[in-house]
Amino acid sequence: MKAFTQHSGVVGPMDRANVDTDMIIPKQFLKSIKRSGFGPNLFDELRYLDEGQPGQDCSSRPVNKDFPLNNPRYEGASILLARKNFGCGSSREHAPWALEDYGFRAIIAPSYADIFYNNCFKNGLLPVILTEQQVDLLFKEMDASEGYQLTIDLVAQQVIRPNGESFNFDIDEFRKDCLVKGLDEIGLTLQSADAIKAYEKARAVNHPWVFGAIK
Amino acid sequence: MSGKTVYDKLWDSHLVKKNEDGSALIYIDRHILHEVTSPQAFEGLRMAGRKPWRLDTNVATPDHNISTDPAERAAGVAGIPDDTSRIQVQTLDDNCDHFGIKEFKMNEMGQGIVHVMGPELGATMPGFTVVCGDSHTATHGALACLAHGIGTSEVEHVLASQCLVTKKMKNMRVTVNGDLGAGVTPKDVVLAIIAEIGTAGGNGHAIEFAGSVFRDMSIEGRMTVCNMAIEAGARVGLVAVDEKTIDYCKGRQFMPSGEMFEKAAEYWRTLVSDSDAVFDSEVRIDGTTIAPQVSWGTSPEMVVPVTADIPKAEDQTDEVKQKGVERALEYMGLEGGTPITSVYVDRVFIGSCTNSRIEDMRAAAAVVKGHTVSSSVKQALVVPGSQMVKEQAEAEGLDKIFTEAGLDWREPGCSMCLAMNADKLGAGEHCASTSNRNFEGRQGNGGRTHLMSPEMAAAAAIAGHIVDVRTFTGDQS
């Protein structure tokens, strides 16, 4: 997995609460058996005026000029500024895949849906949690200044504003460690293979109906 | 020390290892796979040169993108006209064959929507940890399982190690007491709960549904409720074991039998929250006050009783809510302050992992029996949740009742719940739907979803508009 230590980049907005994963990447694109290539269809129904189809060349599609991320001032945005309960709904990991493929490395929001939050970490995408007031302030600063950039330092757990002031954020130690080091979580778990086998052995004795039914 | 909740007990009994950083390794008893969220996980396994940790914990079936049209289904996987869909279904077949995972293939008896199939085959047993690359996995919590959705990376993780690295959630109890009124169903109960606590109300929590309403409810009804826990933000929803749970399990294909069943049942009966267990948060709802519910907006919390008006933006308390209501009304093409029963429907969908079990089929059939679908309704789909539900419904003659009334009787799959196949809404079309999400575009680009119970959707099909099933006479108006 791609490591994340520190990142500076242009901030782009998604100014509504409860953005669901259907909105982030609509269902027709979930038919792909690949992990990549979802970027052009990120926020597809909001971003374009027509209905997108998988495998289509998006460069010639009619663009919704009112969708903020289509505004040239947010071109190259790599930090998404969002509202509460971002990523609710379906468990599709295609949502973080699409955000990452578009070029986002981090999201800043007051809260996330649990499954989406979890999925981000598996893909080197950092979901930062700040308070609603802090997020409000960042929205105001971004609106006021074209090319607005932030720096996110995961090691120090800080979001650093252009004026040098910073907001601290909390994050699970395990998740931080995996992301900072770009660790292979499966490899890490398999280091506990003996503990897993011991658990299975005990379980097979205590709850013998658990194993063997499905052949 | 205080007692344990069902969730605490499930957590403790699946703990393989606690890590110093507060995370834990949790053992997964049952992993259910489908075509949409598994291909990249299998690919990951292959690229890393790994194999499934074990095989007898996994079961797979295609459900999300397959056609429900009988003629198309009869043509088999090779006959799926859409290339990307065919490749995805074929990839699941190939991966299961290659790795030796038990799969119920597209037209095989046993196939069905993952959350219908698991319990009905007995692949889901009380006390299990159950995961699937699908957010509605909480459905299995109706059998007192710790069941939740996972992403594709975790699908790969579970395949490779039979474990997940996770942190313990908080405990929430939603208690609903009192007798439900006539025409009020499990779907109405869960929609009322979501309306009360909001779509993020359960974030970070495992919800236990407790109280007389759930005790009185059938196991299938409990599945409908647990299914939508995620719509309240909770990955996990569950109901404690009682004798209904034990009875439900008896005789199912993968369940133990004889003495082994009795031994298992003895353990299952311990899966109730201790009387002195402490919940991090408690919600209480009076079941006698719940009316049939209908969603009017684009989030599952945007729900009103069928007797109510669609809310107005200006009546909202804060600015964010006002904006949300305004945007939702605009998308839905509705005006605040008008009765929800004034909404005409273009299509009707009875199905999905929320409401496609045999009891749902029976309930919908009872409403449409002897009536005719309104001429203003373009399509009314009934999609059974599994091959077994389909077979049972046909044995009871329910398919005939539906088709005689003018509804389409389809093959099992997820269908118009997420519109990955040809079953979808056109832009601007309103749909009376028994599914679980009314997000923008969920049932088709520009489509407008109204969530409700099977009885209410069936009544809407006949009336041509949203109607209170309690006063529904079958007259078209």
Protein topology:
The complex is a heterodimer of chains A (215) and B (477).
Chain A: E1 6-14, H1 21-24, H2 44-47, E2 79-82, H3 94-102, E3 106-109, H4 114-121, E4 126-129, H5 132-144, E5 149-153, E6 158-160, E7 166-168, H6 173-181, H7 185-190, H8 193-206
Chain B: H1 6-13, E1 15-18, E2 24-27, E3 30-33, H2 39-47, E4 58-60, H3 70-74, H4 83-99, E5 102-103, H5 114-121, E6 129-132, E7 146-149, H6 152-161, E8 163-166, E9 170-177, H7 186-197, E10 205-210, H8 212-215, H9 219-227, E11 236-238, H10 243-249, H11 258-268, E12 281-286, E13 293-295, E14 303-305, H12 319-332, E15 347-350, H13 358-368, E16 379-382, H14 387-395, H15 398-405, E17 408-409, E18 430-433, E19 448-451, H16 454-463
Radius of gyration of chain B: 22 Å
Main sheet of chain B: which strands, in order across? 5-4-3-6-7
First CA to last CA of chain B: what distance?
61 Å
The structural class of chain A is: alpha/beta
Task: List its salient traits.
heterodimer, A: 215 residues, alpha/beta, 7-stranded mixed β-sheet, 8 helices, 7 strands, 31% helix, B: 477 residues, 5-stranded parallel β-sheet, 19 strands
Structure description:
The complex is a heterodimer of chains A (215) and B (477). Chain A is of the alpha/beta class and 215 residues long. Chain A has eight helices and seven strands. In chain A, strands 4-3-2-1-5-6-7 form a seven-stranded mixed sheet. In chain A, helix 4 (114-121) links the parallel strand 3 (106-109) and strand 4. Chain B is of the alpha/beta class and 477 residues long. In chain B, 32% of the residues lie in helices and 16% in strands. Chain B is built from 16 helices and 19 strands. In chain B, the strands form five sheets. A five-stranded parallel sheet of chain B has the order 5-4-3-6-7. In chain B, helix 7 (186-197) links the parallel strand 9 (170-177) and strand 10. Chain B is globular and about 60 Å long. Chains A and B meet through helix 4, helix 6, helix 7 and helix 8 of A and helix 2, helix 4, helix 6, helix 11 and helix 12 of B.
